[in-house]
Design goal:
12-stranded mixed beta sheet, globular
């Protein structure tokens, strides 16, 4: 998905966005590019009448998107896929601040080597605890941020960041840093501001 400078915004709401989530069992993998948490079936986002199921979420440091040219220390991507194979991604900025207990099930169970996947049957994460409450997002059409950088991705990036402590951010960066795609130009695209309905 193309990393975009999120500066040009509008209050025009072009479509309805509704998100439904549930708790899931932690299933963490080091895929060589990032820490990825695979997701059980059941959590969905509805975009323009099409339902997309949450498949996985992962992390980048520093952030792949910028606001007024500034990166955040980290960014989380929640990747959703429709039955037809289209993608919708919710991006969440991560800033340095207070300790965030919601991320401990992931940070405390990081794989030790590339390709290792760890399934924690008795460790669960509530997605609602990982993202801002009642989020409002930047919305734009973009692409994947990893090869082959395919187009046709619906991007939603939360305006309000969440916080992790300096120690938590350092814990991730000790494994991955600089795994962000360089910021791409907006070209002729418009970035809209849109609330998520629940």
């Amino acid at each position: 998905m193309a990393a975009e400078p999120l500066a040009a915004t509008s209050n025009f709401r072009p479509a309805t966005l509704r998100i439904i989530r549930q708790t899931h069992v932690v299933d963490v993998i080091d895929n060589g590019h990032t820490i990825q948490v695979n997701y059980d079936a059941g959590s969905t986002v509805v975009v323009d009448g099409t339902s997309y199921e949450l498949k996985q979420y992962h992390f980048h440091a520093p952030s792949e998107h910028t606001v007024d040219g500034q990166h955040f220390p980290m960014e989380m991507h929640l990747v959703h896929q429709s039955p037809g194979g289209k993608l919708a991604v919710l991006g969440v900025f991560i800033d340095e601040g207070d300790h965030n207990a919601a991320f401990e099930p992931v940070l405390s169970n990081l794989p030790d080597e590339v390709g290792e996947e760890i399934h924690h049957e008795n460790v669960t994460v509530n997605i609602d605890d990982l993202i801002p409450p009642s989020p409002t997002t930047y919305r734009y059409p973009g692409s994947l941020t990893t090869p082959p950088c395919s187009e046709g991705v619906s991007w939603f990036v939360d305006i309000e960041p969440i916080e992790l402590s300096a120690e938590q951010i350092a814990q991730f960066k000790a494994n991955f840093y600089g795994n962000n795609r360089p910021v791409q130009p907006l070209n002729d695209r418009t970035v809209f501001v849109q609330a998520i309905l629940e």
